[in-house]
Amino acid sequence: MHLVYADDKGNVFDHPDLYGVARSGDRLVELLDEELIPLPAGATLVGLPHTRAVGMDPATGEMKLLPQGHQAVGALLPQGFTRFYVPGYTKTDKTQIFPLFGYTAVVWKDNGFYVAGCRSDDPEPWNPENCDRNVLEGEVDRLLKAYPDNRLYKHLSHCALGYECLTSSNTFLQRWEGAVPVSFACNAGCFGCISEQPEDSGFVAPQTRLQFKPTVDEVVEIMLEHLRAPESIISFGQGCEGEPSTQAKTIIEAIRRVREQTSLGYININTNAGLSDHMRAIVDAGLDLMRVSTISALDDHYNAYYRPRGYTLANVEKSLRYAADKGVYTSINYLVFPGVTDREEEIEAMIGFAKRTGLKLIQMRNLNIDPDAYLDLIPKAQGEIYGMKTLLEIFREELPDVVIGSYTHVPPSRRNRAVQI
Question: Burial level of 34, CB count in 10 A (0-12/13-18/19+)?
Fold first, then answer.
């Protein structure tokens, strides 16, 4: 399992002598064979800017820093895979912050690239290679012509073709989970927000946030187009918007109008769930699925990352419990990070949170963040660090009725439940 590094021109090499190492939190660790899988289809290799790669001498166990110009390399995994470790590296300029991606440790082994992680869901629906660019461009053109005055379709066309967002692409391809963004505002100031960052944050937001308030008509048109099949999902709350529940009035009216015309498919919201009153009203309007974003079930960690405005983690828990009691299929978008999520205190808190809220699904989502900036932000570890592989084993043992996955699913008990009204 040899070290993988890149030169200044982006050429990737495997080191003839040194083994690859990884990071768990701020600790360098040796990689084990049982923690590695072949580089998945749809994954990409990237250089970590302003770094030098670190490897291990297999004879002595000594960690060795490669010379200047030998950059650390990480893999960006597609949905369906959970990383176990971050690449081993040291920064050459600690003032520089990595772009907002989820970097995974990668090595060269048995004449191929391997990554530190595991498959946690079926990756095929979200494999970028399954999105035919020519077909997508044709469907974008068709729907833009069919709805020339719908600003949301124009916005989503940029997300699909420019950012290559798969959820937006699904909206035009009319399959699986599609996007219907509604909000330009947010009640949180997330440290790693991918759509809006303060000028002095050091981060560059990789996406542009929605700049207008859609009309109910625009929202309904997209929803009705997408909800043409029993297992289709249309989702409020995208990476290109703020918190969707801040536009609860629009969402509630859109759901009611759509359900007056069809019972096909599923209506989902991706939310921070902090606005409990708004969330109750959205649930009562006819919501089917709710995915709540969280990074921790501990207040100090949650508050450090999300920087909530006018709500607390207790509000989030309250919203989830209400939705579950009303029959909504609830899940969390769990932003996970090796050396943090697998801390003893984090695991115990999340198990309690899942049991209290009646969660049905935990979506393990690799946190897109600069590791050093994140570790400087959050509380220090209080207990043992078990490792991500062990974390998954503990969840499956302690939460036998909770599905461990990677993305939103159609509830198994409700598949094929809908017929056209």
Answer: exposed
**8 A C-beta contact, residue 177 and residue 408:** yes
pLDDT (0 to 100) of residue 419: 36
Instruction: Tell me the pTM.
Output: 0.92
Helices then strands, counting H and E runs in the chain, come out as 11, 20
Q: Give the pair of three-digit tokens for residue 127.
A: 């494999």
Nearest to 167 by CA among 128, 218, 219, 134: 128
Give the range among 28-42, 194-208, 348-362 with minimum mean pLDDT: 194-208
* Residue 73 phi, psi (nearest 5): -125, 140
Least confident of 64-78, 120-134, 262-276: 120-134
Q: What is the pLDDT of residues 316-352, one digit of tens each?
A: 999 999 999 999 999 999 999 999 999 999 999 999 9
**Residue entry with tokens 């570890």:** 381
Measured CA to CA, the distance from residue 251 to residue 287 in angstroms comes to 10
Q: Quick one: which of 78, 125, 123, 132 has its CA closest to 104?
A: 78
Least confident of 129-133, 244-248, 390-394: 129-133
**Which 3 state secondary structure label does DSSP give 120?**
coil
Q: Are 364 and 406 in contact (CB under 8 A)?
A: yes
DSSP-assigned letters across all residues of 186-234: -SB--TT-SS---TTSS---SSPPP-S---HHHHHHHHHHHTTSTT-EE
Q: Which DSSP string corresponds to 361-403? A: EEEEEE--S-HHHHHHHSPPP-S-B--HHHHHHHHHHH-TTSE
